[in-house]
Write a structure and sequence with these properties.
wza like fold, Outer membrane lipoprotein wza fold like, 3 domains, 6-stranded mixed beta sheet, 5-stranded mixed beta sheet
Length: 352
């Protein structure tokens, strides 16, 4: 009797080890599971970071349309109020060239005017004061998958987390990256590095990963956004996992969207329930040409045991795992499965 009991215990342990070995590699670790969060949770952290970044924009940068008072000490002939042109330039009497003021601080413009007055032999030791009489704010355009797409009028640079927070944060279907498009000619004028006759350049686009923005402190992630910039949050594809799984939901595709498969999707849903019928699972996919839904059978039991080919999932796919528990069993019809998926919460994959 004791011998039989010992053999039984050994068999149970072996079965448990085999089951764990067959599926544990696909289940996210504890640290990875903590990275699955809703858009509201992401936005809450964005707001916290934005509060820490307030007033970090530095000195005001002169923009087109601003009214400046230029005072040259003891030289009233050169002192006057000037309006910055649409192209960013101002002109002073006796100076043979127009001066690019857009993108400079008041102090930088003072230094630039002093240098020009000396080089042209107009004033030996000029003392110049530039006062900004009127500020014409510049627009930061925020589009894409955010709660409130808008144009933010600002007279200072803002950090990326401030901009996203001002728009209410990201929408539920936001992708994992943020695109910031900057006018390179405007950026160079801000740093005073471009000659006046330099040719206009095409805008430059920078990509920032949302997960890195929130969780890492490197300044290259939380970059400064200035007037004239366009911030775009592209929509991310969503894969739904519903039915007899531990954590049904819609998972927003991250950078590794090309690697999303039934095995990984099931792992994100934390596996099947005890009453699941994984060998009768189905993928509901819309035909991009006809718009009709098609059902693709998939044997998740073989996939979990690494005995069958894993199927790649694409945006808007629904992976449905039927339940064998009495009345809760579902007939595999696309309409029922789509209806079931429509009420699921959307979760972000983070850096998985």
């Amino acid at each position: 009797m004791c011998r039989n009991r010992g053999v039984f215990i050994i068999l149970v342990r072996v079965c448990l080890l085999v089951a764990l070995a067959g599926f544990s590699s696909g289940i996210p670790s504890r640290a990875q599971q903590q990275r699955l969060e809703s858009a509201d949770q992401t936005n809450s952290r964005l707001r916290d970071l934005a509060r820490l970044n307030e007033n970090s924009g530095g000195d005001y940068r002169i923009g087109s349309g601003d009214l400046l008072a230029v005072d040259v000490f003891d030289v009233p002939q050169l002192s006057r109020e000037v309006r910055v042109s649409e192209t960013g330039y101002i002109g002073l009497p006796l100076l043979p060239v127009r001066v690019l003021a857009r993108g400079l601080t008041g102090t930088q413009l003072e230094e630039k005017l002093s240098e020009l007055l000396q080089l042209n032999g107009l004033v030996t030791h000029p003392e110049i004061t530039v006062t900004i009489k009127e500020q014409h704010s510049l627009p930061i355009t925020v589009i894409g998958s955010v709660k409130m797409p808008q144009v933010i009028q600002t007279s200072r640079s803002m950090s990326l987390v401030e901009v996203l927070s001002r728009c209410g944060g990201i929408a539920d279907d936001a992708g994992s990256n943020v695109l910031i498009t900057k006018d390179k000619s405007l950026e160079e004028s801000r740093t005073n590095s471009a000659p006046a006759d330099a040719p206009l350049e095409m805008p430059a686009t920078f990509t920032v990963n949302l997960w890195d923005l929130i969780n890492k402190t490197e300044p290259q992630n939380n970059i400064m956004v200035s007037g004239g910039d366009v911030v775009t949050v592209p929509r991310g594809g969503i894969v739904y996992v519903v039915g007899a799984v531990t954590r049904p939901g819609g998972f927003v595709l991250s950078n590794d969207a090309d690697q999303m498969t039934t095995f990984k999707a099931l792992a994100l849903a934390q596996g099947t329930t005890s009453t699941a019928k994984p060998n009768e699972a189905v993928i509901v996919r819309k035909d991009p040409t006809t718009g009709k839904s098609q059902e693709i059978p998939v044997d998740l039991k073989k996939v979990m045991q690494r005995k069958g080919g894993d199927t790649k999932l694409v945006a808007n796919d629904i992976l449905f795992v039927p339940d064998s528990a009495g009345k809760r069993a579902w007939h595999r019809t696309s309409e029922i499965i789509i209806s079931l998926a429509s009420g699921t919460a959307l979760l972000r994959l983070g850096a998985l």
